Structures are given as C-alpha cells and as structure tokens.
Amino acid sequence: MALALQTFATVRDANAALKAQGTRYLGGGTLVVRAANEGDVAVSGLVRLTDPALSAIAVAAGKIRIGASVTMAAVARHPELGALAKAARAVGGPAVRNMATVGGNLFAPAPYGDFAVALLALDATITTDDGELPIEAFLSGRDSSRAIVTSVGFTLPKADGFRFLKVSRIKPKGVSVLSIAAVIEQAADGTVSSARIALGCMADRPVRAKAAEEALKGKTLDRNGIAPALAAAAEGTTPITDPIASAWYRAEVLPVHLGRLLLS
Amino acid sequence: MAKVPVQFTLNGSEKAEFIDSGTTLLNALRDKIGDTSPKGGCQQGTCGACSVIVDGELRLSCLTLAETCNGTAITTTSGLAEGGVLHPLQRAFLDTFATQCGFCTPGMIMAAKVLLDHTPNPSRDEVVEALSGNICRCTGYEPIIQAVLTAARANSQNAA
C-alpha cells in the first residue's frame, strides 16, 4: 500500500498538514511504518520534518533538552547522558535504536516504550508548539494529542540517583516483561527523602507507582525498609497481557524486580 | 498517485528511480532496483532480515521509506564481494557453516559488517549484542557468532 509522504521544514507547516484525516507523523518509522506494513488502513498519509533543531541534544547546567527526532542510539552514545544510556539501550536491537526516536517512544504502546518509562521517572517536560506539559499529563492525553512533540526536557539526576531496569525473557534483547525507572533522593542519614518510580507494561502506557513512592519516604534502602514499598508496588496498576506475560505474572514479579532495583 | 524521484548510491553506483510515495526502502531495492539481497521477513522490525547500511548506520529497510534516503550511500550484502572474491564475512559464514536456509544471512552479515567497521576486534559479547536485532531459526546462533569472530581474526591478521 502506498502512503503519501509529505516533508516539511517547519513544525508549524507539519502540524497544519497533520490535521488531514488519516495523516500520521513519521519519526523513525518503527511504529507508524510498522502499522502500515501490518495493514492499518487508518494510516493513509505521513508527514515528516527536516528541522535540525529536532535532532539536537543540549546540556547546560544539569538541564537536558533532547530533540524529539534524536534516536536511541544518539542518546546511548552521548557522553553527558551516561545515566540514561541503559534506558536507551533497552530499546530494540542496534538497527531499531538507529531509527527509533525519543519523541516516538512517548507514543509507543506497552510492551514498548521503555525510554518513556525513564522519562516519566525523571519528571520530564514535553514540548510541542502548543506549549509545555508535564509528562504525566502528556501520557494520559497522548491518544488525542495532535501537535508534534518537538523536545523533552528534564534535570539530570545526581550521580547514582537514577536507576533503570528492564526485564525480558531473551538476552540481550527482548520485549519487556516490565521495566522500572526510579529517581531516588536520600538524606544525609541514608533515608529516602523523595522517590519517583515509573513502571512499564503495568498499564497500556508508563505509569507511576505512587503508593510505593509514598511507602519509601523516610525509609532506608535495605530489605526491611523497602518491604512496605514492595507490598504496595502493584497498587493501582492494570498490567497488560500479551504473548510475553500475563497481567497476573507481571503483577506477581513486579515486587521482586523493584526490590532488586532498590537494593542495587 | 504521483511518482516521486529518489536518488542514492547503492554499493558504490548511482541509482535514480521514480517510485510511489511511501514505498519502503526494502520494496524499492527489491522490486524497482533488483537488489534482492535484503529479505522481507516480518515487515515489523523484529527479524532483521531486511537490514541494510545507510550512511554507515544499520537500518531496517522494511521500516524505512525510500524517499527519506535521498542522497545517502546504501550498502547491501550483494555489494560486498569484489571482483568475484567474497568479503571476509561472507567467506567466514561459509567456512563455519553459519548459514542453513540462508534467509537471515544477508541481515546478519550487514549487522556484523557495521560492528567490524567500528570494532575490528570485538569480544564475543559485543558480537552477540550487535546481532541481537537479527533472528535466525536454523543455526542456534552459535555458528554465526563464530563466523563473525573468525572474520574479525582474518581482518586483524591481514592488517598485521
């Protein structure tokens, strides 16, 4: 099936072209061309952007801004994004990482979207021509979102503050059973002062483990300290069932893997 | 639908074609240009059989639109042999019996070539990682990993 592809130099023109019915935005192609190949007749036209600003990574005073067209491979090899390399490398194989974009990952349905899980834990801000949105609000409204994501921004966590774990059955590359990202801050006495924990595959899109975050506050990161958080980890989640794992299995193993991540 | 022009370098020679807008690079290479070395396996980005090298980077040609490759240099497995002499990777795949049905082989060789271009002496783990986006249902992977390590050794001996 042929798809008419339109190429634009500016975000404004591309956003205008996206208003036509059946038109989707083409980033790396790993979601939308895949859908077209699978016979998704809802996709009849594609729009892409050549604006180089969307492919830029800017690091200044601990603040990171990653253009929406930046690939997972570019994040993984960037010298100042070492903390995020593990999350970027969790996506696909080498060829997929050369294509898949940061912006596209925000729209990837579970079991995909491991990098968006990392961005949720980092409390990223999502920028479109309509303005900026906190990632949580963006993810909950992504199905009706029409404006092209131009960049994501976040503050780089302190050394060792960011933790990421992807669980898959095939090594080194496989689809997620689940993924977990956490930004944990500890006071001088070692107790947790703040925690943001994001989960992949525990709903149709990345979600926060808010009950576990609350249960961690004031606790130390040892087996006893994290026990209440592990007990609360699956609270409020609606895990997916797919050929990789059932919802039941995902809910059962989540506390095990969260425990490993917190004690690592 | 109106045809659109595409132009790129394929294995060192200039190619120019008119294609339907939205044609994948895989279909353009196979059906328009006649290079059938990239294979259409899953069409989903899962199997890696369609892997080609675009401007030095491994890509899945089934998920890449040909129009987005204007002005690029593309390498496929059919361009590796020179003057009838097989590329060291192709030689190693034959010598170590790393190919059975052969369907995954061109994609495997592309993934391995990108690895060796950047990392001439890879570790076994690096080979496994480089091939992690390519699925083989025949060999159990071990002969393929050995083939890439053998080709790497052959390269370093030639260089020495």
From TrEMBL, chain B:
One of its GO terms (molecular function) is 2 iron, 2 sulfur cluster binding. The keyword Transport does not apply. Gene3D superfamilies: 3.10.20.30, [2Fe-2S]-binding domain (1.10.150.120). InterPro entries: 2Fe-2S-bd, 2Fe-2S-bd_dom_sf, 2Fe-2S_ferredoxin-like_sf, 2Fe-2S_ferredoxin-type, 2Fe2S_fd_BS, Beta-grasp_dom_sf, Diverse_Oxidoreductases. Residues 4-80 form the 2Fe-2S ferredoxin-type domain. Keywords: 2Fe-2S, Iron, Iron-sulfur, Metal-binding, Oxidoreductase. Pfam families: Fer2, Fer2_2. This is (2Fe-2S)-binding protein.
